């Protein structure tokens, strides 16, 4: 009897193992379209739970939809940073950013002075990033943030890069800093200067509400400081910190040129 009992236990364990293997195969590790998105979300929920995401975040994950506009934008992203620095600056309205940046610098001199005292980052680069990213808060995006970042975590193009940001977005939902209906930029960026969710957790200061102008600018300065910003050094010497913000060379050079023009006023 003991032999047969052990045999039944072994058989049951084998069936369970095969079932788990079949389940693992059913949940794709990534996808190139929306076909496997719902199955992947169920699998990702277990990963999110293990990372400390709570019920509010998990509910937001369950409600996320495959963001086709985000995928389209991601596939075309190389075009946005193509061409010369001069053509990039023209497309992005560098002259208007410089003019408006100078005016905002004067109107908010005390705020920028306080940020520079605290983080060692001058106003020019903050204004250049703010103007480049959202037109000084005029256009912070209308894509659902959770759906965008979760879709990019699922997409096969760069899942390892975006999965930590997806976990961070769900944690921000748990904290009330985001909701399931929050909107932002196409790649899940948030607020005046367009922070990815993981960077909100790492570098966000004060309330962490990046839709608040002062918080967003101070958080951006904190990010640059953490990425090696050298107070008082030239923009050429600080290109590494700017590169931490955006890896595209034309973007980095445009930010430096715009910032120098704003600081020179």
UniProtKB/TrEMBL annotation:
<feature type="signal peptide">
    <location>
        <begin position="1"/>
        <end position="26"/>
    </location>
</feature>
<keyword id="KW-0732">Signal</keyword>
<dbReference type="Pfam" id="PF13406">
    <property type="entry name" value="SLT_2"/>
</dbReference>
<protein>
    <submittedName>
        <fullName>Murein transglycosylase</fullName>
    </submittedName>
</protein>
<dbReference type="GO" id="GO:0008933">
    <property type="term" value="F:peptidoglycan lytic transglycosylase activity"/>
</dbReference>
<dbReference type="InterPro" id="IPR023346">
    <property type="entry name" value="Lysozyme-like_dom_sf"/>
</dbReference>
<dbReference type="GO" id="GO:0009253">
    <property type="term" value="P:peptidoglycan catabolic process"/>
</dbReference>
<dbReference type="InterPro" id="IPR031304">
    <property type="entry name" value="SLT_2"/>
</dbReference>
<dbReference type="InterPro" id="IPR043426">
    <property type="entry name" value="MltB-like"/>
</dbReference>
<feature type="domain" description="Transglycosylase SLT">
    <location>
        <begin position="37"/>
        <end position="236"/>
    </location>
</feature>
């Amino acid at each position: 009897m003991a032999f047969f009992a052990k045999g039944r236990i072994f058989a049951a364990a084998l069936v369970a193992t095969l079932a788990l293997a079949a389940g693992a195969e059913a949940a794709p590790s990534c996808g190139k379209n929306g076909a496997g998105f719902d199955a992947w979300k169920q699998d990702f929920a277990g990963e999110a739970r293990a990372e400390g995401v709570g019920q509010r975040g998990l509910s937001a994950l369950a409600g996320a939809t495959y963001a086709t506009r985000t995928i389209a934008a991601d596939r075309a992203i190389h075009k946005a940073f193509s061409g010369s620095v001069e053509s990039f600056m023209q497309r992005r309205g560098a002259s208007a950013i410089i003019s408006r940046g100078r005016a905002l610098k004067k109107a908010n001199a005390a705020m920028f002075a306080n940020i520079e005292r605290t983080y060692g980052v001058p106003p020019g680069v903050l204004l250049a990033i703010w103007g480049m990213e959202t037109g000084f808060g005029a256009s912070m995006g209308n894509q659902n943030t959770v759906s965008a970042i979760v879709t990019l975590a699922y997409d096969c193009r760069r899942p390892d890069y975006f999965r930590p940001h997806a976990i961070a977005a769900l944690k921000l939902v748990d904290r009330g800093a985001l909701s399931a209906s929050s909107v932002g930029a196409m790649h899940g960026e948030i607020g005046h200067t367009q922070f990815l969710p993981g960077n909100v957790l790492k570098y966000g200061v004060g309330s962490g509400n990046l839709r608040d102008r002062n918080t967003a600018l101070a958080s951006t300065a904190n990010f640059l400081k953490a990425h090696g910003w050298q107070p008082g050094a030239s923009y050429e010497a600080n290109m590494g910190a700017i590169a931490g913000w955006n890896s595209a060379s034309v973007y980095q050079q445009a930010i430096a040129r715009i910032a120098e023009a704003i600081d020179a006023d």
